[in-house]
Write a structure and sequence with these properties.
Layout: H1 3-18, H2 34-38, H3 42-50, E1 60-64, H4 70-78, E2 83-88, H5 91-103, E3 109-113, E4 126-131, H6 141-150, E5 152-163, H7 169-180, H8 190-203, H9 209-214, H10 223-229, H11 240-249, E6 253-257, H12 277-282, H13 288-298, E7 304-310, H14 326-330, E8 332-336, H15 343-354, E9 359-360, E10 374-375, H16 377-380, E11 391-392, H17 393-403, H18 416-432, E12 436-440
Parallel strand pairs: 1-2, 1-4, 2-3, 4-5
Antiparallel strand pairs: 5-7, 6-7, 8-11, 8-12, 9-10
Helix pairs in contact: 17-18
Length: 447
C-alpha cells in the first residue's frame, strides 16, 4: 500500500477509533424487527440467485467492517445457527462489538481487529459476506473486494455497497466545506467539529442552497447523522458504471441490487406502455447496467448502490415458477419466508381467517419496493400449515379444498382444477414478492 493510501486509511481509522459506528445503545436489539433483519438474511439472497432454499445453520458469515457490532447482531438473528465472524480495522469498534453480542447472549461469533485486505490470514471461507457501508471509505475498493472474493466459497454471495455520486452530491459539498474549515483534522475533537458544523449551518440564511439541500431535522442535534454525513472522512461517490467496472476488475458476477424492485426505470413513467418513442424501442433491449444507470440519472433517490455479487457461473439459470407446468407444481415444496414464521404473524393470520377479513401480509414483513399486499381470508388460510414446516404443493391444494369444499358462487363442489389454480395463483404472487420460497425435488434448468 502506497503512502497516500496509508494516509487515507489512517484518517478513516482515527475517526472510527474515536467514534465507533453505529452509535446504537448496547441494550437495543433488532431481534423483533423483521424489516431490518430482511436486509441481513442470507437465504433471501441465495434464493434470489439460485431459486434454492438454504438453511443458514452451520453456515459461515463474515461481517466485513463490523463497526460497533449492531449489524453482526442482526446477522446472527436473521440467520439462526450460522457462525458470525466480524472484522474491523478499529480496535475500539471491535471491543464494543464483542461487548454487544456478549450482552445479548450470542455465542457462535468471533471478532478480529484487522483490515479487510488481511482477511485471508484467518484461513476461512465464507458462505455470505456482508460488507455494508465500507467499500466507499477504502482507499482502494478494488483491493478490498478482491480480498473478500478470495475467501468467498464457490456458491457464496457478497453484499456490498457504494455511496451514490448523484444522491450524495450535496453532502460531498458540505464535507469539502468542513474540511476547508479544518474540522476533519485529527487535533479537532468530534464534539468540537459537530458543534462548529452545526453552528455554521444554523447561521446560514434558509435561502442558501447548501442549507436547503442538506440541513434537516434528522441531522440537527444528531451526532451520528453529523459524523456520517457532514464529517465523514474520505467519503466518495460512485455511479452504476463505476460499480460494474469494479465488479469486472475483480471478476465478480453482478447478481442484482439488494432493493432491486426499487430500480425499475419503467416505474418512472406515467404509463409504462406509452414510453417516448426512442425509449419505447430501445429500453426493453438494454442491459441491466444500462437500465440501472438510466434510473440513477432520472431518479437518484438511493443513497447506496447496494448490490449482491458472487463468483461467475454460480448455479446457472432456473425456470421461474411462472414457467412451471403442472408436473413442476406437483413436485414443489413451499416454504414460508423464515422472517414471517413468528407467533405474532400467525396470530394475525388466524384472526383474519376467523373474522373473514383480508390478511395484509406486507404489514408483517416490509420488503423494499413491495407495496400493500392483501390476501382474501379463504386463500390466506392455506399459509397456516407453513408455520409448522414446509409443505408440498399438493398438501396445500388439499387443505384448500377442505377449507372451501364448495364454490361460493356456483355452489358446486370445489374441483381439483379450481384448488390447483387458486393455490398456484397465490404462491406465484407471493414468491415473486419474496414472501414464500418454492423448491423442486429435482430442479429443472432452463433449456
Amino acid at each position: 500500500m502506497n503512502e497516500l493510501n496509508k494516509k487515507h486509511l489512517e484518517s478513516v481509522k482515527q475517526q472510527f477509533e474515536r467514534s465507533p459506528y453505529p452509535r446504537i445503545p448496547l441494550e437495543q436489539t433488532p431481534k423483533d424487527n423483521p424489516n431490518y433483519l430482511y436486509q441481513h438474511h442470507f437465504a433471501s439472497a441465495y434464493y434470489h440467485r439460485n431459486q434454492q432454499v438454504i438453511d443458514p445453520k452451520d453456515k459461515l458469515i463474515l461481517d466485513a467492517g463490523c463497526g460497533s457490532g449492531y449489524k453482526a447482531l442482526a446477522l446472527a438473528y436473521a440467520n439462526p445457527g450460522a457462525k458470525i465472524v466480524g472484522i474491523d480495522f478499529s480496535e475500539e469498534s471491535v471491543k464494543l462489538a464483542r461487548t454487544r453480542l456478549e450482552y445479548h447472549g450470542i455465542e457462535n461469533v468471533q471478532f478480529e481487529a484487522m483490515a479487510i485486505e488481511d482477511i485471508a490470514s484467518l484461513r476461512m471461507e465464507f458462505d455470505y459476506i456482508n460488507c455494508d457501508e465500507v467499500l466507499y471509505l477504502l482507499p482502494d475498493p478494488e483491493a478490498g473486494l478482491r480480498a473478500l472474493k478470495s475467501v468467498l466459497k464457490p456458491q457464496g454471495i457478497i453484499r456490498g455497497n457504494l455511496h451514490s455520486a448523484f444522491q450524495r452530491v450535496y453532502f460531498f459539498r458540505a464535507q469539502k466545506l468542513f474540511k476547508m474549515m479544518g474540522l476533519m483534522e485529527d487535533d479537532v475533537s468530534d464534539e468540537m467539529a459537530m458543534e462548529l458544523s452545526q453552528e455554521t449551518m444554523e447561521a446560514l440564511r434558509d435561502s442558501v442552497d447548501l442549507k436547503k439541500r442538506v440541513w434537516n431535522s434528522r441531522i440537527k442535534n444528531n451526532p451520528e447523522g453529523l459524523l456520517a454525513n457532514y464529517l465523514l472522512r474520505e467519503d466518495r461517490g460512485y455511479t452504476i458504471p463505476d460499480l460494474f467496472e469494479l465488479l469486472e476488475k475483480t471478476e465478480l458476477e453482478f447478481i442484482s441490487m439488494v432493493n432491486w424492485r426499487q430500480w425499475n426505470p419503467f416505474d418512472l413513467f406515467v404509463e409504462e406502455d406509452k414510453l417516448p418513442a426512442f425509449l419505447g424501442m430501445s429500453l426493453p433491449a438494454t442491459s441491466i447496467e444500462e437500465r440501472l444507470h438510466l434510473y440513477e440519472l432520472l431518479n437518484p433517490i438511493h443513497r447506496l448502490l447496494d448490490f449482491w455479487a458472487g463468483h461467475p457461473d454460480g448455479e446457472g439459470e432456473w425456470l421461474s415458477p411462472v414457467e412451471w407446468d403442472s408436473q413442476h407444481w406437483h413436485s414443489a415444496q413451499v416454504h414460508l419466508h423464515p422472517l414471517l414464521k413468528t407467533d405474532s404473524t400467525r396470530r394475525e393470520l388466524e384472526t383474519s381467517v376467523q373474522h373473514y377479513r383480508a390478511f395484509t401480509i406486507s404489514q408483517q414483513l416490509a420488503i423494499p419496493g413491495v407495496g400493500k399486499v392483501m390476501i382474501d381470508s379463504a386463500t390466506a388460510a392455506c399459509l397456516l400449515p407453513l408455520f409448522q414446516s414446509p409443505q408440498s404443493f399438493s398438501t396445500l391444494t388439499g387443505f384448500f379444498r377442505e377449507l372451501r369444499p364448495r364454490n361460493p358462487v356456483t355452489g358446486e363442489v370445489t374441483s381439483d382444477d379450481e384448488a390447483f389454480a387458486a393455490v398456484r395463483g397465490l404462491l406465484q404472487s407471493l414468491e415473486s414478492l419474496s414472501f414464500v420460497f418454492l423448491s423442486l425435488e429435482l430442479p429443472v434448468a432452463k433449456p
